[in-house]
Each structure stands twice: as C-alpha cells, then as structure tokens.
Amino acid sequence: MERENQQYNGLKEACGIFGIYDINGHDTARITYYALHALQHRGQESAGIAVSDGKKINYHKGNGLVTEVFDEKNILHLKGHIAVGHVRYSTTGLNQIYNAQPIVVRYKNGYLALAHNGNLINADELRKELEDSGSIFQTSTDTEVIIHLIVKYIANGMVEAIKMAMKKIKGAYSLIIMTNEAIYAVKDPNGLRPLCLGLMDDSYCFASESCALDIIGAKLVREISPGEIIEISKEGIKTYEYDGSKKEAFCIFEYIYFARPDSVIRDVSVYSVRQEMGRRLALEYPVDADLIVPVPDSGIPAALGYSEVSGIPYGEGLIKNKYVGRTFIQPDQIHREIAVRLKLNVMSEMVKGKKIVLVDDSIVRGTTSKRLVAMLRNAGAKEVHLRISAPPVKFPCYFGIDTPSKKELIGSKASVEDIRKMIGADSLGYLSMEGLLSCFKDKGFCTGCFDGNYPIKVPEEGSKFIFDDFSTI
Amino acid sequence: MERENQQYNGLKEACGIFGIYDINGHDTARITYYALHALQHRGQESAGIAVSDGKKINYHKGNGLVTEVFDEKNILHLKGHIAVGHVRYSTTGLNQIYNAQPIVVRYKNGYLALAHNGNLINADELRKELEDSGSIFQTSTDTEVIIHLIVKYIANGMVEAIKMAMKKIKGAYSLIIMTNEAIYAVKDPNGLRPLCLGLMDDSYCFASESCALDIIGAKLVREISPGEIIEISKEGIKTYEYDGSKKEAFCIFEYIYFARPDSVIRDVSVYSVRQEMGRRLALEYPVDADLIVPVPDSGIPAALGYSEVSGIPYGEGLIKNKYVGRTFIQPDQIHREIAVRLKLNVMSEMVKGKKIVLVDDSIVRGTTSKRLVAMLRNAGAKEVHLRISAPPVKFPCYFGIDTPSKKELIGSKASVEDIRKMIGADSLGYLSMEGLLSCFKDKGFCTGCFDGNYPIKVPEEGSKFIFDDFSTI
Amino acid sequence: MERENQQYNGLKEACGIFGIYDINGHDTARITYYALHALQHRGQESAGIAVSDGKKINYHKGNGLVTEVFDEKNILHLKGHIAVGHVRYSTTGLNQIYNAQPIVVRYKNGYLALAHNGNLINADELRKELEDSGSIFQTSTDTEVIIHLIVKYIANGMVEAIKMAMKKIKGAYSLIIMTNEAIYAVKDPNGLRPLCLGLMDDSYCFASESCALDIIGAKLVREISPGEIIEISKEGIKTYEYDGSKKEAFCIFEYIYFARPDSVIRDVSVYSVRQEMGRRLALEYPVDADLIVPVPDSGIPAALGYSEVSGIPYGEGLIKNKYVGRTFIQPDQIHREIAVRLKLNVMSEMVKGKKIVLVDDSIVRGTTSKRLVAMLRNAGAKEVHLRISAPPVKFPCYFGIDTPSKKELIGSKASVEDIRKMIGADSLGYLSMEGLLSCFKDKGFCTGCFDGNYPIKVPEEGSKFIFDDFSTI
Amino acid sequence: MERENQQYNGLKEACGIFGIYDINGHDTARITYYALHALQHRGQESAGIAVSDGKKINYHKGNGLVTEVFDEKNILHLKGHIAVGHVRYSTTGLNQIYNAQPIVVRYKNGYLALAHNGNLINADELRKELEDSGSIFQTSTDTEVIIHLIVKYIANGMVEAIKMAMKKIKGAYSLIIMTNEAIYAVKDPNGLRPLCLGLMDDSYCFASESCALDIIGAKLVREISPGEIIEISKEGIKTYEYDGSKKEAFCIFEYIYFARPDSVIRDVSVYSVRQEMGRRLALEYPVDADLIVPVPDSGIPAALGYSEVSGIPYGEGLIKNKYVGRTFIQPDQIHREIAVRLKLNVMSEMVKGKKIVLVDDSIVRGTTSKRLVAMLRNAGAKEVHLRISAPPVKFPCYFGIDTPSKKELIGSKASVEDIRKMIGADSLGYLSMEGLLSCFKDKGFCTGCFDGNYPIKVPEEGSKFIFDDFSTI
Questions:
Q1: Among residues 300-359 of chain A, which lie with CB inside 8 Å of chain D?
Q2: Is D46 strand, coil or helix?
Q3: pLDDT tens for residues D422-441?
Q4: Is this model's pTM higher than 0.90 or not?
Q5: Quick one: average pLDDT of C312-316?
Q6: Which of A185, B8, C93, C171 could form a disulfide with C120 if both were Cys (CB 3.0 to 4.6 A apart)?
Q7: Which residues in chain B show pLDDT less than 50?
Q8: Could you tell me where the beta strands, DSSP code E, fall in B212-280?
Q9: Does domain B271-322+332-440 have CATH number 3.40.50.2020?
Q10: Would you state the CATH architecture of domain C269-322+330-440?
Q11: What are the catalytic residues (chains A, B, C, D) (predicted)?
C-alpha cells in the first residue's frame, strides 16, 4: 500500500505527537522540529509546535509539511524548556488551519497546549453537554472537547483533572498536554494508539514512535501503558493510573502498515514483525514461483520474509519514482494509464517470463492491486500471485484511522475468490488472523478492522465523522 | 500624516467592519469583499468574511490585504444570504492569524460570528471573571470576551443576551454579530467608533464608513445611535436601546485623519469638515506666504481650505511615489536619506525661493515633519511655516487607536515653541480646540487624545495593552 | 488618465533606464535599485540590473516591480563600480522574462549590457539583414538588433561602433550601454525619448528622468542632446556627436502625461508646464462653473492652472482608493459598475448641485471619461464640462508608447462634438495645438499622436508590432 | 550513493532530454512533461519544453522540478506536433535561468530549439573562434556554441549543417534538435551519453533513458549509435552517419549509478547489471557475515546480487525517510549528527550483534560512508564490511558528470587500506575493473573516472569549467 500520494485512497493515519521537558539546555523547538519530521508519515496536512518558558506559551502552526511550516525564523522565536508538537494528516486539501494542533488556550490558572493522536467516539455528546453548560467551540476537532473537560475539572489539580476528563471521554487517545510548568502524556485505557517515553541526555520526552527518538539521539525507555498518565515537571517524572482495567487493545494495523519500519513499539520491532508476517504468509499460502516482488515500500519486509521461507528469490520488480510530488498535471483521458506509472514502473527485464509473487500489506479498494497485476502481466509476467500480509480489511476504524466506508472496502463486500478475479491475479492469499497474531508474543490488540471486534462499543457508521459542522476554507 | 507605510509610526485605526442581510439574491461574500476593500484604510493586517446560509456558518480569514486573502475560489465557496466581514490593522508583522476576525464559534444553539471595531478597557477583568467560571480563551483579543458573554446570557434570547453583555463591557465598540439566522449591529453608549446603516436595493447592511456603501451602490440610511442595537432578520429590521444615557462621545480623530475623505459620518462630510478645519486654521494662524503645500494625501483638504481663506495659492509641493510597496531594501548608512524620498519628493521648481505654508493634520513624534521641513529648505524654500489642522496630540487613546505611549508623543512633552524648534519650522500653528469644535454643528465628541477628557474612566497607561499574554508567530 | 491599473487601457510608456559610473565607493546596485524605483511609472513588467567590476558583468532580472524582483541577497551579490538598470512595461501579463533588460552578452572583446527606452521602426529589416549574415536571436526585442550591430562594428572601437550602429537604426532610442570598462549614453538624432546626465558626488550617472536623480541625491547636469554619445570611463567624461542634423523632436506626451510631475526635462518642469496647459485651457475654453475637479492624479496640475485663471475654486471631487492592487476578484455582471468605484469614488457632498469642470490630460478610448461623467451626474452634479489639457489623440505612436490602433482611438474616428455626446458631457474642450506649444519656450517636439507629423517616416500601421514571432509563456 | 539531497556532494548527472515528432494527435507538451518527469533524476535545477506547430516555436522554461515549472496553463499553451524537453541539474541553487534549456533561437530560415546532454571540451576555443567572426553569446553554456555552429553551416541544409558542426565540436553530446519542421537526434562519435529511439503508437520519439518511454507507453526501438544522426520529419525517419570511426566509449557510470534502475541501455538492463556487479563483488571480496545491508536506494541491486552469491541474508538495515525535502532547518552544532539521520535511520533490531556487509555503488569523498559505518556500529553491529560495486573513483569526468576535483576524490589520494581506516570499516572491497567489465557482454566503455583513460584527450583540470565567465543570480 503506497503512502505518499495524497490522492491515493488508502488508509491514512491520524496524527503524530512529540513532547519534551528539557533540563539539558537543548533548543526544544528545534528538537521538536526534527522529531516531527521523523513522524511526518503520520500526518502531512498541518504541523505545529508550542513551547513554554515556564510562564507563557508561544506557538506556531500552519498547513503543510514540517519543513514547509517551519523555518529558522519561527524556530528561533519559540523559546522555552518545555515543548509539544503535532503533525496532522490531510483530509480535504482545503485550508483547515483552525483545526491544526497543538490547541493552545488560556484558562484561569495559565495556559494549556494539547496534542492528540486518536479519535473519540463520544465527542459529539460531550460537546453537547459542554455547550449546555455554556462552553463555546472554535474548531471542528474532538481535541477541543478534551481541553474543555480538563479545564472544567482543573480546580482539583492537573493530574486529577486529567483523570476526571479521561473518565468522561471514550475512544482512542494518546495525548501530550503541556501547562506553563509541566508536561503530561496520557494513553486511553485500551492503549489503542502508540506513545512512548524517551530519554534525551537527562531530559524526558514523549513520541508517537521510537523513530522520532532515534533522530534526536534519545533512548527509548518504554511504551506508555494503557490508562497511564505520566507527568514530567521540575520535580522529575511521576506516573499515575486512572483506569485499573487496562484491557489493552493496541491497533494491530500500526504494525502492519502505519508505523515506520524502523520503530520499535511495545518491545516489538515493526520491521521484524512485518518480516515474520511474510514468513507466516509463505507457510499459509505457498506457491510455485520464480520471483518475490514487493509493492514498495510497505510490502518489502513481508516480501523478504516470504522469500526467506519459500526459498524463492526476492527482487525489485517495481521501481518507485523518487520525485513523486504533490501536484501533477493530470493525464488526459487517452493517457490515463500514465497516472500509475508516475509512481511505479515495472522492471520488465526482471519479471518477463516469470511466475511472480506480488506481496503487499493490505487491499483497501483493490484498484491499485488490479493495476499492478496488469502492469506485471503487460511486462511479460507468466503468472502473478498476490499475497497480503494481513487478513482482509472488512470494517471501518473508529479509533484514529481514516478508512473508507464499509461499502467501499472490497474486503467487506466480496469473497477472496471474487477479489482475486476482480484484481486479475492467478491466486490470492491473505494471512489468516491466527497467523497474524502468532507473529506476536503478547496479546492485546484491536483487530476491529478485520473482524469488527472493537474494544469499545462503536457508534453506527453514519455517525462516524462527528464534527463536520462548520468549516473554514 | 502618511498612512500607507507599515513602518511609519503614525496613529493607526483598529478595524473596519461590514455586514449584510441579503434578500435580493446578491452574492454576499463578493459584496462584502468589495466593501472591505473600501475599508482597507482601517486595517491592513488581516481580513475575514463569514457567511451564513441560515443553517451553518462558513468562513475564511487570513493575514494580508483583502485582495491578498481572498480569491475567486474562496469567495465562491462562501455561500449564504447573511455575511459579516472585518479588516484589522497591522501590529507586528508577525503571523497573528489566530486573532483575525470575524471570530466564529459554535455554541449550544448554533453559530455566532462577531466582528469588532474598538477597544474594551475592562476586558482583562472580564476575562478573569469568565476564566473563574471555567471559560477558556484561544485568542489574545477582547473580542473573544464579548462572544463569551453573549453566549453566557443566550438563554434569554439573542437581543437580551447582547444587552446583558453590553452592560458588562466598557469601552469603545462597534459590533456586527451574525447568528445562523440574523445579523445585529451594536454601538457602545458613547458611540465612540463609527457604524452606519445602509440599504442595497431592499437589503439592509452595516458598514464602518459610508465609503463602503458607495462602492457597492448602497444608500446611506443613517448612523447607528450610541447604545443602539439593530437586528435584521427575515422579519425585517428592528431597533433596540440598551443604554438610555446616550452620552455621545464620537472619536473626533475619525474626522481629522482616520476616516476616508469621501465618507459621510453623522451627516458630516469628512472632506468638507477637513476643509473647514483648514479655513479656521488660516484665521487662527495667518502668515505672509507664497504657496500652500499639503502633506499628501491627508493634508490636502485642510490645505485647500487654508488657501481659500488666505488667498495664497495652493500647490503640490510634495509628490508621492505611487509605487510605495511594503518591502524595501533598506538604504545603507550613507544613503539613509533615501528612505524619505522613496515616498515623497519635493517639487523644487515650485518651492524654490518661496515662503511655504506646509499643512498637515497632526504631529505624532515629529520626525517626519522635521524631515519634510528640511527637504523643503534644501529645495530652496525661503521660509517654511507648519500649520496643523488639529490641536497637539498629548494623550494616548484607549478606544481603538494605536497611539504611541505618552512619552513618545511630542505634543505631550514639549511646548509648541519647542516643537517648532525641533522641527525647524519658521512658525508653527495648531488649530485650537475651540476652532476644531466650531467646524461642527453638533457636539458629542471624544477629544481625549487632545485634552485627556475621556468619556469613560481609563486605566493607568501601563495596563493599556491588556491581552499580550500569549502569542503565535 | 489613470496609470496604476494594469487592466486600464490607457497609453503606456515603454521603459525607464538608469546607469552610473561610480568613483566614490557607492554601492552601485543599491543606487540603481532606488533610481529604478523612482522610474517605476515608466514600466512595471520587469526590472533588471547589470553590474561590471571592470572585468566581468553580473546581472539579475525578473518579472515584476523593482521591489519584487530585487531583495537584499541579490543586491549584495551585484558588486562593481559600473551599473545599468532597466524597467519595462507590462504587455501581456505572461512570462516574457527572456525579453527583460538589460540584455547582457559576451562577445569577442568582453561583455556588453544594453538598456533601451524607445522603439525602432526598421528593426525587422535589420534583423533580416543580420540573419542573412548568420546572426541568431534569442529574444523578441529590437534591443537585441542594436547589440548585434554594435558587436558587428566593434573592431573600430566602441564609440565608432556605436556611431555606425546608430546610423543603421531608425526610430526612437535612448540607450545606456555598459562594457566591462565604461558606460555610454546615446540618444537618437531626434531626441525622441528623455535621458539626462546627473552627478552624484563626483560620479556621473544617466537617468530617463530627473526624479531618479532626486531620490539618490544626485544633481541634474543636463539633458543628453539628440544625436549625442556620452562616454564615462576611468578617463572621465567625453562627448561625441554622430549625427549633425539634430532635428530635435522630443515626445510632447512625456510632458502631458508620461513623465513624473516632479521631473525636469530639457530645463522644463513637468509639473509647471502641466499647470500652464491648464491655464491656456481656461483661456481657450472658459465656462461658467462652480468647481474645478481633476481626474486624479494626472489631471491635478492642469486643474490647478485652470482654477487659477478662471477663478473657479479647485476641489477634489474624485477620491482615489489607495489600496488598488493588481489582482481583483472581478465583479459579476450585476455589479459591474463596482469596477470603476474600486479605484475612484465621487465626493457627493462636494459636487452635489454644482456645475463641474472635469479636467484630464487626454482621452484614449473615451470609456473612462464616460463613466466619470456619469458618476458625477449620479452624485448630483448639475453640469459636467470636460476639459482636456492636450489636443485629441488621433494617431498611434511608433516611438515607444503603447497606443491602441487608430480605430480604437476615439479622437481618430469622431468629431469633438460626437465625442462629447458619447461621453455625455455638457461641453468638451481640448487644448489646441497652438495652445499646447505656447506653453513651451523652445520648439522641437514630436506631435505625431496629435497630427500625424512624425519626425521619421513610419511604417504602415499593420507592421507596427514587429517582433511577435516567437513567444515564451 | 544517495541522490535526492541537493547538498549532498556526490556525483551529479548533467541532463535528461526527450523529443517527439507526433503523427497520432497526441498532446506533445503533456507527453514531454511526463517523459521529463521520468528523467527527473538526471537533473533537478531547471526544466523546459519547446513545441513547434510547423511554423513557429513556443517554449516555456524555468528553475525547479518539472512539476514546479509546469502547470496546466502553460502545458495547454504549448501547441504543436513536435516537441523537445530538457531537465538540468542543480549547480549552485542560484537562479541561472538563462542557462535553462532547450535553447530556442530565431535565425535566417526559421527557428531552432536545442537540448543537450553532455559536455564539450573544446567549447571555449570554438566560442573564441565564433566571437572572432562576430558571434555574441547570451548564456554560459556550451550548448549555445553548438547552435551557433549549426546556424553557421545552415546554407548546406540541416543534416549537412549538423554534420559540419559535429566535426568541429569535441566531447560528449547527445542532442535533440528541433526546427519548425523536423526533429533530429545526434550522438557524439564515442557515444558517451545515452540516447534512445522509441515508438509511441506510430510516432517516433527520443529519450535519454528508456524509463521515459515506459511512462508514456512507448516502445524502445534501439539506442542511437555513436556518430549517428536521426531525422524525423513528415517524410518519416532517416538516419545518417557523420563519423565512421565509431569508437564507442559509453559512460560506464551510467550503469553503475546514474541511470534509473528500470532503464534498459544498449540492450542491457541497468538493474540486472547492477545485480551482476554485486555477484562479482561477492566472488572477489567474500566475507564471513550475517547480513547484507544496502545503502538505499542505489546499493540495493548490488546488495541483492552479493546476497545471492554469498548466501548471506539480505536485509534493510538502513531506512530512508520518505519526506526528505529540499529545505531543512540546519541542526545547531550540538545536534549535528541529526543531519545524517534526517535521511537515513539504522534498523537497530536488525543489525544489533551482527556482522554486516554494507553495499554501495561508489565512494566519492568518503564522508557519508564514514557516518554510515559509525551509525551501524552505534546500533550494535559487531563488524561492518564495506563493499563497493565499482572500482575507486580516481579521476574527474570531463563528459557531463559533475565530479569534485581530483584532490577531493578520496579514491585519488588514498590507498584502499587508508580509505578503510578513514571510514572505519572492518574491511573494504572495491569491485575490480576486470570484474566490472565482465558484467557486460560487449565492450566500448569510457572508464576515465576509474583509470584516467578518456576516449578523447582532455584538457588540464583547471580549465574544466570553461564557461563560468558571466553569471546571473
């Protein structure tokens, strides 16, 4: 599944977040800039950094990539020893700058900046409740609901206010909250989205994925636990628990596709587990073939695993164009097929006359898979066997992933055999749920997109995108 | 006093506002765009338009001139029969987009958009009160305080809520408030800032100045009264009074400098009254001279009036460069004097060997007047007599004008004779307060910047800029 | 006649040029930047500066205003003691960057940079001649022909080469030519376009108009003579004559409209002569009226002169919007009349019930005059008498002014009475040719646009725009 | 060797070219746009397209990537059935737009557009010759010399003129030349740079690499021969030979690094031959190790080949950040190491405790290799063995590749053992020249950068960059 192209109708991650409480004299805004850059795959719509110098919070946010939103001038302007940053994914392409994060507010006792990765499922009713008690809202985000709740309970102290707010909200949320004086990391009781603790010299930091720690030279300490609140202040690090149930249900799709391959989440290397999925896939769906070809880049580790187990050589049969930009002049009707080749070209020399196993991580609508199979056949491939390193995606996600509706999900409406026919592959094999789970030592996953078993009762599908009610352009 | 140059340290108007409730099928966003363009002199930092289609409010705002913020695409996107727009003046040049107006919020019963011209003097204490009762703030503007108050009282109905909110706030405010269904114009009990009612075909509209009505072909109906609320809805126009005192104290500086000369405010033509100030000035401070030279453009009408009474010919002794842009490469030290000439050039042929009367509307710091006098002398002027069509500016404004602090106001710290010496003029005459007031038939002005007599008790100077507490860049 | 608006179909000047040979250690690129800024009214399409350090020529050019094309970085990069700059007017709005000037070339002996104001009438045949002898062309400009000719004759020395080239070319040209080592100013034998010599400290410079000297603090020495070549090198200043006939035919329209009012050309103040035209106009076409209203800004001096002689008061009946930008959202059909008001508003208070004399410098197509008369009537003017401070424009210009074709010139196809009717004025008076010429002490003008008497035989109208043969976009 | 980063001091290809003579009604400008996009790796500085409609040539060029320079508007403006396009690599980052190609000129008989890939070694003397006979130059490119020569001989007909010009110029050149009526492809007698003939439906086209044919759905016909001229006109295809010697010396570095892996050049698949280099490298420099890690992306095929022969597993030990943009905020001194990690991250889980073979295609200065080895060690690699799939680069290229000077080439100044020490690898193996050549069936390569054996006598190193003599910024 390709990620870069904005027009591509794949699955999209919601957000990436980072925070740091510095005691080593680092330039925290700059550090956050690099960390957000490493988390860019989690969101390309907008980027923002807020910084506290102990008294006041300054911030800058804007639409675009991290490298587009920030320059030397605004990084220099953001002075302070605590920082929180956020990247957000692209929905419409229109200017939704008022929804950019972190959201920064002034309230009775000072300032709050909040960065959120995830999605609430009861934000609408909470917002109505808050509106009934007089609150007003300036964005279309569920994140603004969280901040209202925290302020509502603030008289009880920050940690207690967070706990009380967390008891009201339902859904997926990994949060970084900054006050004038401290920074907090929070994970929902199911721990749906990743968030880890790192150490940069002697300064604690939080990041959605460990790849953000790598870039700044920080060490990964551990994953935040489900239902945990971590507070970093001048008194050091403290940890709190606000939900004892801790029924972990970590999004398994982070391992399959979303997370960067070089991240380590919950002590599991994303890359290694993808390779392992490929190995299991080879055991479950072996085939007599000449070459294992990955769909770059996300299919590579599974393809290598498949190759290892099957003994069939691995080869780059599809080559990516490195200069894929955001804005292409669209081909006219006659040359429509150019659109696919703008991103990928087939290595004819390599696939000609061969039986190919094409390995990808998932099929969403099936259109790209269909084109790739056709391209391989046109280049002379004798057979094309499609292998997917996860079960069919059948259900929408309510917890922070932008999935199409159920009726657009090919896995939801067609049998594997029908999908195979539609795509035009000689055979099609999806890794089984058992096979997928067996790649991990531990348990505790949300597999809702495959089997509809969500850790929390989800609303009717129609009510999914709750906050579309006013828009900026 | 020149206006265009952003770096110029003159006095700056706070804002311009416009609103319309259309029943004639006009494209309200486009109409608002043109109206804001005519009000551009009241604010060049940001521009915004919000539109209601009866159900929902959409908006677009951004930093820059109206023509920079809006294009065909976003105008087309803003559909609806009610609209409100705002232009805001430039403070720092940094990106303060979160303070752009109209502010649009969602609350219990729907949406509110609010555009504000003026300045509150008790916003800080009101904000603290609101924060104490749990409100959170996302901008640095006093306008956000007003919207919180209105929502707080909304259960009493919109008009009552506005009345109750207005009773809490103190200061200068001309407001246009839009709900999903109606639009409201409000003026503070002193009527400090302008706001008028217009009629475009059969549709009522509101504008800071009548020049905005001219551009869209609307007729000026009347000025909104101090302490008046006008409501335009599908039931037509209704008017309410929320403060019976009505002690009008209209900002006299709007007539002297801020308003566009082609506007008519409170039945008084701005241009004509400026000409009259020039006539009175000629009577108060006659001088034997050869040529009356205005400081373009604001000194022109007074210069013409002075010429008329004195019988001394009027002539353009200073010529403006029409291509003055925002960004100049700064001259090096050696060529510093170029900076002045970038904007104005002396007509040597015209002033050589002559006794000149230079007419301007005000002196703020005195540095520009000093340079102009020197330029005229260098070009061969035999004498330069400076005439100002208003009394010395001695006190800061707390009601929506961005004045320098008292210690930077030359009128505050030096006698007229000392100012004359500093500027290097042969003589200097300021129009007297009596002379100024005699230009008007009616009374009811705020003359605080000249005599410190403010219509409302003002805070200590230090506490003037209340909401500087968090900043975006 | 208004100038700022790019869409306005008035007459447009071709170019402005400036050059300096510095011996005082000035930053020549910066000096040229300011000088070009003062000449911006002569061309807004592109700007360019070339600098020689004695060995090599560096340059930068681009599309846009001087302040848009240049920034601190590229000014700093242009080091050298000789500089030449150019501004060019906007033709199509498309990117014609390859036609920007100065044109810089390398040839046998070194480098040449050439800046040209004017228009050749035999460029096409010269280009064919040069092509026949093997020359190739990379731009669509007649300027490239001149540079080819100079290089062709270069073996005879630079001055001789210029002389020989000048003998070949016909038309209007004021040139500044820079080699590695020297700078040259050249005027055609009729001296059609302006070019003057200035002195900045001890360094000689050349400029299209003296206003460019004013901004940099240079003194005006004298106008370059028709058929004169001036050379500035390390050996000082030398002057040469290449055409003894010297039948001066200076473009009279520079005085009427094109030149900046604060310039002095051929010892004549542009502003003063415009005022004089107004005086003569009042004598030729007196009228019983209440107010003299100029079309701002170009009609102002003539209106003041008319007022002076007639004794009728002068007043600003039309007010310009200072924020007229380049890009407006176009009004829809219903609101078409907004387009005019974007730039000018009528001062209703001032014109109501009055007999108005509207003074402008020229009528090209008549559409703007018609709208202005209508606006004045709508505002309540009792009578509107139009007075033009020049004779009717009847013929196209072949010498550097962008005029519409003869059939679009209203003066060419209609009688004065018919024009008056079309425009809707109560009376219409054009200054007579005799009246116009009597404003000047000296003779020697090109009045071709009024009477078709060109100083050189001109081609058929169809062949006017010779070099449209290949285009960049 | 990484390619994307503009600041990276690797080797840079000069240019990519494409041309088409369409008889099928294709939109040639759009086709050229896509083809140039596929050739973007050959040059990122500027892009240009010229189109002939049989009578006239229109063109558009600009600085930046193909997707930045062209938009729907300018593509639509370029109408015609013959087209030629060019991409150029980035030298300084400054605006060298006057050197963008194709160069388009008007000459006696019509128009010429010329796109050039390569580098002439006698351009300087030819330019002097041309200047002596009166030619003038407006760019700093050797390409302008070629066009002057062709025009000089044009009286003999186009093919003859090309032949005569080609006999004068020495060096590397693959050219596409377009007249109003025909298009020509030309290769130098040594065939140093690639250029192939393709067929899109029934229309012939030319491209630097076959990957450009793939994207537009054209078929690869054959490589142009050394010393061949192909003419496509309304009379179809004709081929000419202008140099019988045909001593082919194709740049072997195209196969090693420059060409896109999915291209086929001279019947050799670039990808396959790189894999073969890896296989030979494994035979020449075997090592006991646990994992073969490529430097992405260029080291991948050789790493796969090495893995295949050695039996050691292949794995992605270094992960690229997909969002590497052009403009990064530079890390401060303390965090300098971040710069490397912005582009590549080590997969610690994968390399920890392992003996690694790191495979790359070349070492230029050695600094990147050194950092990568250090990163692998820091991540826990037990041993790091560096294998390079080509011999040491010891000599600069004079034929179209931008190499650093000899003294900056580490291969030129240090022994393999010294390089190994400097880089910090446990062992270092370069593929031998024999090994490299044995990967190909045919002969006829330029291996000058490895052994100094150039096919043509080259100038002294100092005189390499001949045309730096005047610059735009």
A1: 300-301, 304, 308, 313-316, 319, 321-323, 325, 327-332, 334-335, 337-338, 341-342, 345-350
A2: strand
A3: 999 999 999 999 999 999 99
A4: no
A5: 94
A6: C171
A7: 2-9, 91-95, 462-473
A8: 219-223, 228-233, 236-241, 250-251, 264-265, 268-269
A9: yes
A10: 3-Layer(aba) Sandwich (3.40)
A11: 15 (nucleophile)
